[in-house]
Amino acid sequence: MTAPRRPNRHYEYVDDGPAIYTDSFATIRREARxxxxxxxxxxxxxxxIHGTGQVGLADDLVVHPDxxxxxxxxxxxxAPILCDAxxxxxxxxxxxxxxxxxxxxxxxxxxxxxxxxxxxxTRTAAAVSLWEPLLEGAVVAVGNAPTALFHLLEMLxxxxxxxxxxxxxxxxxxxxxxxxxxLTEFADRHGTDIPYVTVRGRRGGSAMTSSAxxxxxxxxx
Length: 221
Fold this sequence. Notes:
The protein is of the alpha/beta class. The protein has one domain (17-217): Cobalamin biosynthesis CobH/CbiC, precorrin-8X methylmutase (Rossmann fold, 3-Layer(aba) Sandwich). It is built from 9 helices and 6 strands. A 6-stranded mixed sheet has the order 1-6-5-4-2-3, with helices on both faces. Helix 2 (42-52) packs antiparallel against helix 9 and helix 7 runs parallel beside helix 8. This is Precorrin-8X/cobalt-precorrin-8 methylmutase. Residues 20-218 form the Cobalamin biosynthesis precorrin-8X methylmutase CobH/CbiC domain.
């Protein structure tokens, strides 16, 4: 096989990986408004902004004051990370995980299609039901389907085990903003205070969610 050949340099750009990270985080801190967030959530916010390229994301972030310590302690104790989408799971950097944590997504489970048909819901929501045996003390991450976040909250109202933390950043035009609003109101409405991070409105997605998980897994940037 022929050895790969580097092309001639035709553009001026930074190609030093560590320097790119350092300069990116410095740029975010210069440009983003982070003062309304808990002090321990600054690095979380910076990573989420970095994962989306949207400095204005900071204005819509809502972070429970206990989210960072609760999630990090759970991960250090070996808690699993339960993801609604494969892309969220794939975005978690294994080398940052402190407790040899399992990163799980049940969307491909053979039971899911039948459950979704029986219940008249999305497959992503049906897959969330399979989290229940692992839910106690877990870190859960919803970065795709609003129905998955609604389904999780309904499970918790009905007495499902309590996770250590929720990263709730589903994306979309139907139900995304509403599901995240329900997450922010959950403690007041139902008396169960679970640390969370979310972003108001329609924005969200796998990259944002996995960036949050990577920040929670390890303090160092």
